[in-house]
Amino acid sequence: MTSELASPASVPSAAAQAAVFDPDSWYADQIERTIITEDELRSKVAELADRVSSDFADTDELLLVGVFKGAVMFMADFARALSVPVKMEFMALSSYGNATSSSGTVRILKDIDSDVSGKHIVVVEDIIDSGLTLSWLLKYLDGLNPESVSVVSMLRKPGVQRVDIPIKYLGFDIPNEFVVGYGLDYAERYRELPFIGVLKPQVYQR
Questions:
Q1: Could you give the residue numbers annotated as active site?
Q2: Which CATH number is associated with domain 14-204?
Q3: Tens digit of pLDDT for each residue in 40-74?
Q4: Distance between first and last Cα of the chain
Q5: DSSP secondary-structure letter at 156?
Q6: What would the pLDDT profile of 177-186 be if each residue is shown by its tens digit?
Q7: What pLDDT shows up at residue 13?
């Protein structure tokens, strides 16, 4: 059964928004600006991991479910920052392709490999925008009879959700712009960038 309560999110700092790019970097002419720096991401991961570790301190095993590929960077950092025993599972869902917004039609490309019945599940998300894919995933996981299902998401775009999904563990609310970095991509590029940046419209409107 899904058990979640809304939680306030932090706002990216003015320093991050004013960040200057290395002119020699390959992405310098493709990223409009940085909105969350590498240091801010690192600090937020530690904060979220502390909260989850506290809430599940009496749990002998926490199951993290990451959604390929966007959540990989966050999930790796988050898992290492937790102070409770964890297992990790990954699912691959298709709803974007090379588009910039979710189609709302979800296909499972890779399912969970183990039995999650009676487990405490924390779904690790990179970003929540329309919420359609996440809403579908939560219903799917609920059908597998876990003890509980919670969500931790590094990013959310408030005001664009098409379904109501209260999130218990949230990193940052960000503007409704197309962002990349820290696992987020456009056409499979930019995932490796250590910050969150806004992609210039001319890159994806070609």
A1: 129
A2: 3.40.50.2020
A3: 999 999 999 999 999 999 999 999 999 888 999 99
A4: 43
A5: E
A6: 999 999 999 9
A7: 55
